[in-house]
């Protein structure tokens, strides 16, 4: 009889005992708080409140996983902040669902508010108590595993720091082992873009890779972390076959942080592990969500500001001869070109065609009309781009699209420049609300803008978009706007 087994998924989520129990404790705390609150305010648990609690627990299971409440080991303040966000979003989902189903009137606002406030404090207290108990157990536990990190450099330092500061791992880094000298030489001088902090080394260098088998026996090592640069794959292969006979856990930490990572992730395709180094965040549901966000908000904004658009159009027409609107080719998502629309702010005879050399607007630029100076300073000239959003060329929030001539110039001076095209360009963006807008006289100014654009791509969410839109009202006027 042939027994067929299902191929084992290569991506596995490891959950410790404490993090396995914590979700049940949180759920129990919420149920107990809700039962007490409902008993005090209403007197008995109705079917409507049972449905409310079931939906709340379901929302918690999804959002707590999204925020990594039971997977991260950050300090308590960081854990508390994540818990607050996930718990608040769970309640926001309840309120939205109740509003859409017209069921909000059947629930007591006082009871729901008390469940929200007391539920958060109950969970916070539980997380604090469990953390203290776990720390106490760890201090008196003899089961802490000894580990060695193979490799040196900033990523190895970072890994050692994280292991040493994480009481949940039950591991202690005894020291590090250096790779061959020629491999170390290749790593020196490489610019790190993925790790911004510098960590003081606490672990001592125990020796070279050739000494690793004897070091495992000498220090009773249970776990090995291999940190290798991209070009040192041969080192990993040779080392693996040596360690496989030493009865130790072997973990590979590929040193990829010398690259500019764009929305990076780890996934599995047909059982094959895939490490994604660069990818747009707009796929599947995310793509649909941003499209809905853009079109709904753009339509509402256009309806609201239509009188302003009419007044600006009349002012532009009366101020100087020429068309009301100005269009120019820009590079958008995945580098595809489109025509961007603006209110004309310069004299027609001084405007530059797409094929000619383009010069950025400067302070007191003689090409700018009187009305043009005002609408550029207040960013009213950008408002016609709402139509670009409606037809799908642009988004409300994203990296600002530069003139194609500027793209060509800056891409030669900034190696990761075109990474900003991994998402739709926007009317406003993270770089703009941070003040990185207007004329860029120095290359460092453009570099900071690109860094903010890539940070936005790596952290994109609907909530980030909404916060940037809220900050845009004050950020889009000022000294840099001319």
Write a structural description.
- By secondary structure, this protein is of the alpha/beta class.
- It has 3 domains: 17-140, no CATH class; 145-259, Rossmann fold (3-Layer(aba) Sandwich); 284-475, no CATH class.
- The chain is 48% helix and 13% strand.
- The protein contains 15 helices and 11 strands.
- It has helices spanning 17-41, 47-66, 76-100, 109-140, 154-164, 181-187, 212-219, 233-243, 284-319, 370-377, 385-391, 404-411, 430-433, 443-458, 462-475; strands at 145-150, 171-178, 204-208, 221-229, 249-255, 265-269, 272-276, 325-331, 337-343, 395-397, 426-428.
- The strands form 4 sheets. Strands 3-2-1-4-5 form a 5-stranded parallel β-sheet, with helices on both faces. Strands 6-7 form a two-stranded antiparallel ribbon.
- A hairpin with a 5-residue loop joins β8 (325-331) and β9 (337-343).
- α2 crosses α3 and α9 runs antiparallel to α11 (385-391).
- The longest helix is centred in the middle third of the chain and has 36 residues, at 284-319.
- The relative contact order is 0.07.
